[in-house]
TrEMBL record:
Residues 434-474 are annotated as: Disordered. This is Phosphoadenosine phosphosulfate reductase family protein. SUPFAM superfamilies: Adenine nucleotide alpha hydrolases-like. It comes from the Archaea.
Amino acid sequence: MSTTSEFYDYDAVPVEKGEEVLGEVASKDPDNIYAAVSGGDDSITALHFAHQSSAIELDGVLHVNTGFGIPKTREYVKEQCEKFGLDFVPIGNHNARFSHERYETLVKQFGFPGATIVAHSQIRHNLKDKPFGRFRNHLDGDLALISGVRRFESERRYEKLGREGIQTVNGITWASPLVDFTDKDVSAYQQHHQIEENPVSALLCASGECMCGAFEDRQNLPLLEEYFPRFAQKIFKLEWDVLERAARGEIKTQYALWAHGSVDEGEYAARTDVDQASLMCSDCEDKCPSEPYQITGNPLSPAEKYLQEHDLSELHQWPFYCAVCDLVVEDQLSHREEVHPFDAEDGLAGEWDMRRIELDASHESGIIITEPNGWDIDPSQITRDEEAASRRKHQYYYENISLFHCDEHDHSWEPYNDGPVMQCQDCFAFNLSEYDPENPGPPAVEDSDDDLEKLTPDQEEAQRIHQQLSEFGA
């Protein structure tokens, strides 16, 4: 909300209502009172209102560092805290989030959020809910948080906050002195008190503290590239990482681009059907574009350009081994789509374990070897607590997962699926040295132009795989 020269009537601002809300907070006599500040216009205005009020005394300012926001916003919030003489309390990557909960790790595993309820809720839960919960657990006494939620901005969040601008959610008192403020009231208050606006908010109409892409407009990428080039490059690099995963069949292609789509009203309601989450994600609703992004026109990133000009199956020019089918495949993306579709609910088609054949490791060991089973696992996901691993979806018991091949390739090979493929019982990599393309694949033939012209598509694939495997010395 830009503070322009347009005049707004400060006398019409519902200051008395805001003071009533803070008075109600004071009557509860909480042990800790913090302002929850994202860096957007509403939260910074609520911070100023609470700071100048005689009803309460703030203990500090909480700022959730999602790990994927524009740094200028965090700097701005810190500067405002210094100006007000308040403690700046960042919650995020270095003090309240495990590495497997970080944005970069999550999107490499699941793709960019924005098209499914699960993806968005998981991102929000890891970037905001978990770090905030850990902060709360280490805080002595009860807690009250001052936010900038407004009835005129979001009817849904207003309902969760309560008609009087104060509500207790999961043992935490949330209160907003801006509950009855309109857009003009916020601007009038900012002008009257000469509140410095966050330059990121002025440009993007959002705080910029969380740029996960769930509700972002992809058309803002050129703007980010012009004014925040380092952050734009961070997005571009991550898109390539996710695109590589999509080309392996690990992620749906539609999730390979940042801010790739939007949601309809029903899905949005389902996504935000969590009280505290709605209060924490204060920017999301207004940023949601009206239509899913279409890959047409001028590409907005290198990854998008690649998708326009190439078939994604061209990205990996190397065979993979499908452990479920006991089959070496050259086009793992087509194999995923045809044999193991993402929407399968059960049975063989619902399983997926595709391993890349490791070139360097194969040369080092003298055998044709795949990745270990923990090739995509973050170290923080591994635990020695077997019971915890069985309870938690994204934790693994250390004896069942290996991030690396065995030292000096001292493997313990056992027949897999009755052979001839072998699997190491320590690192769980596969040994394909005795893999026979005739079983289960069609027979390989001699490499001659006449023979190749007579091959069926399946035989051509088997022939190419056989030739590539032979490069390892099999």
